[in-house]
Write a structure and sequence with these properties.
Blueprint: H1 2-19, H2 23-33, E1 36-39, H3 40-44, H4 58-78, E2 82-87, H5 107-116, E3 121-124, E4 147-149
Parallel strand pairs: 1-2, 2-3
Antiparallel strand pairs: 3-4
């Protein structure tokens, strides 16, 4: 988030100084052009670094991690940082690129948050060309690197 915001500030300054843009227009252009790609599976890999509370069960710790992930997605989407989303899943310890729902990332809840906050552009990230149909929920007719819209999901 900090990198995106700092880059936007720098671009705003350059657009004003080098191109004579008014501050408001320059800031708007910087906001439109400098975004981050959120990879839902990569975010879930932080699970392996999560410091477990020894007084809680594994399930309770997983729930705490999921809450943290959802809070981060909410924060990034409200700050208008996200320009694109890679939708893939994993088990939280490696980058398996599983179909959404086949791992333990809270994909459905992440997508609901993104949709609520107006994020749209995303793609299914996979190492294989395949139709996605997972046991938790299904995405119909989505294939490798096909652009999809969050409005069509969940």
């Amino acid at each position: 988030v900090r990198l995106v915001k700092q880059s936007r500030e720098k671009m705003t300054e350059l657009l004003q100084k080098e191109y004579g843009k008014k501050e408001k227009e320059a800031a708007q252009l910087a906001n439109e052009h400098i975004k981050a790609t959120l990879d839902l599976g990569h975010l879930n890999i932080w699970r392996k670094h999560w410091v477990q509370d020894k007084s809680k069960s594994l399930k309770e710790n997983d729930k705490d991690f999921d809450k943290w992930v959802l809070d981060m997605v909410e924060y990034m989407s409200k700050e208008d940082i996200i320009g694109h989303v890679h939708v893939d899943d994993n088990l939280g310890y490696g980058d398996e690129h599983l179909a959404p729902g086949d791992g333990n990332a809270p994909i459905k809840d992440m997508i609901k948050i993104l949709k609520k906050n107006g994020c749209c552009g995303c793609s299914r990230e996979s190492h294989e060309f395949q139709e996605i149909s997972s046991r938790s929920f299904s995405f119909s007719q989505l294939v490798f690197s096909e652009e999809i819209c969050l409005a069509d999901l969940v």
